[in-house]
Design goal:
This protein is α+β, with helices and mostly antiparallel strands and about 240 residues long. It is built from four helices and 14 strands. The chain is about 20% helix and about 30% strand. Strands 1, 2, 3, 4, 5, 6, 7, 8, 11 and 14 form a ten-stranded mixed sheet that branches. It is globular.
Length: about 240
Amino acid sequence: MNIITQLVILTLSLLLVNADLYCTNLYKDFKHKCTPSLITIRSCCDLKTFSPPPGIFKMSTRTFGTADVYCDTATDGGGWIVIQRNRKDSKVNFNKNWIDYEKGFGNLTTDFWYGLEAIHCFTQTGQWEMRVDYQKNDKTWSYLHYNQFSVGSASEEYPLTVGQFTGEGTDRFVSSPLNGMKFSTPDNDNDKSSSNCAEKAKDGFWYNRCSHINPNRQPPWVAGDILSIAMKIRPKDCITH
């Protein structure tokens, strides 16, 4: 056995030991702590083993540091980080400027926008997917799913990348198209319309024209026929995590 092969085996062994230790400690935390929100995870995917109910957890990553996140552990296999939630009767004001949408605002237990910089940090490494769940006025639920999702950096004004669409509803991102569009707010217009779409809708989002999708509008969506909407992201390998 040559030296390179030995080094590869040693590296893989160390990774497996570290992973096993992490899982063991995580199991102990869930077993002995009464409040799951006190447990620090590396990803909402880590919760798949324990299947706790959806809720707020502390997540620690190398790119973002430690922060509270809302994990959807129930929908389509779980592992989702909820990055946005808005309801028709929301008490959260989504009519915010660039700095607010960059940093995030609202309440993780009700309605919120998680923040462009955080979403960028989440998606700058690995491959991510996005799911949009929404409830219509007739109380039925539907969803949009995109097999790729990422947000660029602040210096680029947070351009959006979305991939192939599947789902029960009508595609509102790829066919619009919103792919490659920079984020827009009332005080920073980056859309392709002759008017400021974000200023007109009194929200912030990735706009091409003004009549595609308004999840941060109050009430949400273009037609106003949506009772609630939530955007969620997870690593593409989460389902086999």
